[in-house]
Amino acid sequence: MSETAAPARDATWIAETLQRLARAARAEFDFSSIVSVLSAAAQTPVCVIDTRGSFLASTPSRAEWDPDEILRRATDASDTGLVVYPLLVEGEPVAFLAARLDSDPGGVCHFAADLVSLYLSRMNARLEGKRELVAQVLEDFFTARLPDEDATRRFAEIGIDPDTDYRVICGLVDTSPARLRSFPWNLHTLVGSGRDPYIRALIDGYVVLVVPAAAPARVVAEVAHERLSRLGPDPRVGIGGVFKGLSGLRLSYYHARTAAASGPGITDEMSLNLGSLLLLANLDLPLKTLSDEVLTPLVRYDEQNHGDLVLTLATFLALDCSSQRTAAELFVHRNTLRYRIAQIESLTGRSLASFQNKMHFWVAVIGAGVQVTPQAGRPDTLNPLASEIHPPTSRS
């Protein structure tokens, strides 16, 4: 663009441009109107591109852009000829606004970027509200508080066809529920239909996706894992199986949760564990409280004597009550392991030779959140509830 063609960018032009941008934002059409106003006022091409290099808006539409150049300028503004600003939603850069200018006259490009960010944040907040409704319906259904006869009507309201087979994908990462709830998952959802491509909700600390059986589950899980990795280390994603009917959807949810809790990464084709699924499904039972009560004598002993009775018990159960494997896993002599087992039995009044007592302790370890991943390399299926590796805290 020649200097003679450039508009006069004095204080009056800056003030008028800022006002026109503000009016475009208040009109609440979509953010492309802000891009168009900025392009017309500055008489230069302007675009919005997401972090993956896809264009969301461009004025004029015939303008040619190099997405790699824009993404490079987003982190290196030393060159001239292109002004780039990040678009933020909940503090997360989701896209960039770019204008073919040597500099930002009067900060009008920065102001336009802030307006687009505000628009996207507002759309994200609206989508959050929709997900809250979805989460309530799904949670009521998964925990059987919503009878199957009422589920058909409620599912239609949130976009689930009871006559279609679905699978559930669950994701878990160490971050706050508020951050999980507000994180901008899919930018194209905000600027497109306003609906998630798949049903998504936050339930009991898990990101839950309900996807049709025909959808590429592994691809969806990989996208979920990538998104969660931005929020914390070692995210876990579990893929549930496809089962028939409404009860099958509920089973897929618990299957996916069990898989997600088994270890970091993406877990697929995990065998169903009936005991784990039954315990997970009974969410109204105060399992953690009851489990902590069972393990309290062992926790107190460990605290007072710097012992490892809780860890020993959990490892013993995780390794199918094999004394040889447990001793090797804990790097202790078998006589030391026998002594610890005797202490556990003495403090709790229960013999580990009894199958019923083994089940009693197994449930307690699950409910208390004790997780063991043996070094043999297989994922631990002992604890489908735990998201961290830690023993329960003792009661005062």
Shape: elongated
Task: Kindly report the CATH topology of the largest domain.
Answer: Alpha-Beta Plaits
Question: What strand line-up does the widest sheet have?
Answer: 6-7-5-8-9
Number of helices: 15
What is the succession of H and E elements? HHEEHEEHHEHHEEHEHEHHHHHH
How many structural domains can be distinguished in the coordinates? Answer: 3
**Number of DSSP E strands:** 9
**Helix/strand structural class:** alpha+beta
Question: How much helix, percentage-wise, in residues?
Answer: 40-55%
Average pLDDT level: 81
Largest sheet: 5 strands, mixed
User: What would CATH call the class of the largest domain?
Assistant: Alpha Beta
In short:
The chain is an alpha+beta fold. The chain has helices at 11-27, 32-42, 67-75, 108-142, 148-158, 177-182, 187-191, 217-229, 245-260, 274-281, 287-305, 309-318, 323-330, 334-348, 355-368, and strands at residues 46-50, 55-59, 83-89, 92-99, 166-172, 199-203, 206-212, 236-239, 265-267.
Can you tell me about this structure?
There is one protein chain. The protein is α+β, with helices and mostly antiparallel strands. It folds into 3 domains: 120 residues, GAF domain (Beta-Lactamase), CATH 3.30.450.40; 157 residues, Alpha-Beta Plaits (2-Layer Sandwich), CATH 3.30.70; 82 residues, Orthogonal Bundle (Arc Repressor Mutant, subunit A), CATH 1.10.10.2840. The chain is 50% helix and 13% strand. The chain has a 5-stranded mixed beta sheet with strand order 6-7-5-8-9. It has a 4-stranded antiparallel beta sheet with strand order 2-1-4-3. A hairpin with a 2-residue loop joins strand 3 and strand 4. Helix 1 runs antiparallel to helix 2 and helix 11 crosses helix 15. The protein is elongated and about 90 Å long. The protein starts with 10 loop residues before the first helix and ends in a 28-residue tail after the last helix. The relative contact order is 0.08.
